[in-house]
Amino acid sequence: MNKNTLTFKQKQEAVENIFKQYHRAKLKLYCLENMNYYPQISTSIIRETKNHYNKSVAERLNSRIEDKDELRSLISSFEIIIKALSPDSQLIITNEFVEQREDEWWVDFYSRATYYRLKTRALEEVLFYLNIT
Question: What pLDDT, in 10s, does the model give residues 92-109?
C-alpha cells in the first residue's frame, strides 16, 4: 500500500492505531515494574492447599523480565522514530498522539491550513519510518 494513495483520514487512523500500541506498552511496562513479586501473607486466611503451577517462580520471573525488555524495546523504537522526525512533525506527533492534548492545541503555533499541511507531512513521515508505505 502506497502512503500517497491513503486519504488524510486513513493516515491519521493508521498512526492513531500505531500509537495505541505505544500507550499500551507504556502501561504494561508500568504495571510490570510496579508489580509486587513477593505477595504479603495474611495469616488469618492461610490454608494448606496443593497449588500446582505450570511454571516455577524463577520461570515466571524470567518471563516478566523478558516481557519488560520487549516493552522497553518497543517504547524505545517509538521514541527513536519521534526523534527522527522534522521539528514541526515532532511537535505535531508529540502533541497529537503521545501527549494526546486537546483538539486545538495548535492554534498558538499555526494557521489552520498550515497545521493540516504539516500534520499530513507528519503522518507521512511516521508511516515512512515505520515502513508502512
Answer: 999 999 998 888 899 999
44 part of a folded domain = no
- Answer whether residue 47 is part of any domain: no
- Residue for cell digits 521514541? 79
Query: Would you call 88 helix, strand, or coil by DSSP?
Result: helix
CB 95 within 8 A of CB 85: no
Residue 13 is assigned to a structural domain of this protein? yes
pLDDT of residue 94: 95
Contact residues for 55 (Cβ-Cβ < 8 A; gap 6+): 63
Domain hosting residue 121, numbered range: 7-34+56-129
Query: Does 14 map to a domain?
Result: yes
Least confident of 46-50, 75-79, 108-112: 46-50
CB contact at 8 A, 78 and 22: yes
Q: Locate 48 and state its grid cell.
A: 494448606
Domain count, the chain: 1
Q: How confident is the model at residue 3 (pLDDT cuts 50, 70, 90)?
A: low
